[in-house]
Amino acid sequence: MSETSDKIVELKNVSLSLDNQIILEDINFTLKEKDYLTIMGSNGGGKTTILKIILGLIRPNNGCVSVFGTNPCQSTYAGKFIGYLPQHIKSDLKFPINVFDVVLIGRYNGLFKRYSEEDKQKVIEALEIVGMENFKDRQIGKLSGGQMQRVFLARALVRNPKLLLLDEPTASADPEMQQSFYKLIKVLNEKMAIVIVTHDVSAVLQYGKSVACVNRKLYYHGEKEGALGKLQDAYKCPIDLIAHGVPHRTLQEHKYL
């Protein structure tokens, strides 16, 4: 990536089909340093798939993907600058591992060597950022859901990423925890770009900078103030249902699939 360019992610004409089913079609957008992009759309509309394409976990059938100047499917370079918090984290809550060691795993670089003192200091710093430093010796399975989410966020932050990807990070949190989490993300946005997948319209209006409305196609990509009129097109259901968090799926008669 050029030192003078602030463009860190670019998707050009990206399309993906799996098992003869179209998942994404002709997706185009860019992300710059310290952007805060919220991706919204119907269940199964391809939102999480976009994150996985940026991570290099899925290779699109067509189009070009550039992340920090490289193709993430062909190089591990971009991964050094990305923190990722998936929606579902598989973890054995009975496994005897404490919070400190869970976050320390985020410093693993694939080489067989001992963790350094710098690695350990980065863990403490990450835990302080998310307000979990006093729980560093707590067994991971003894945390609440909200506390656990903050620990895994710390693990995503421990490598000092330039881009943070979040997939439905507050889906199981209570309203108070959701507000606290979004306020933290807004502070993090002062140092890094944020891409968050969510159905929370109120969070978009209050915290995000720009919105991408996706349901196989990209219906809108721009400032949040212009997005609400396009959300209903992307979700294929009334906007008041989205805003009140009513569970739904795209109505069959409106599907493009």
Automatic annotation (TrEMBL):
**Where are the annotated coiled coils located?**
none
ABC transporter domain residues are 9-241
Which top-level group of life is the source organism from?
Answer: Archaea
In its keyword annotation, does this UniProt entry include Cytoplasm? no
Q: Which PROSITE patterns does the annotation name? A: ABC_TRANSPORTER_1 (PS00211), ABC_TRANSPORTER_2 (PS50893)
* UniProtKB keywords: ATP-binding, Nucleotide-binding, Transport
GO molecular function terms listed in the Swiss-Prot or TrEMBL record = ATP binding; ATP hydrolysis activity
Sequence similarity:
Belongs to the ABC transporter superfamily.
Q: What is this protein called?
A: ABC transporter ATP-binding protein
Please name the source species. Answer: Candidatus Altarchaeum hamiconexum
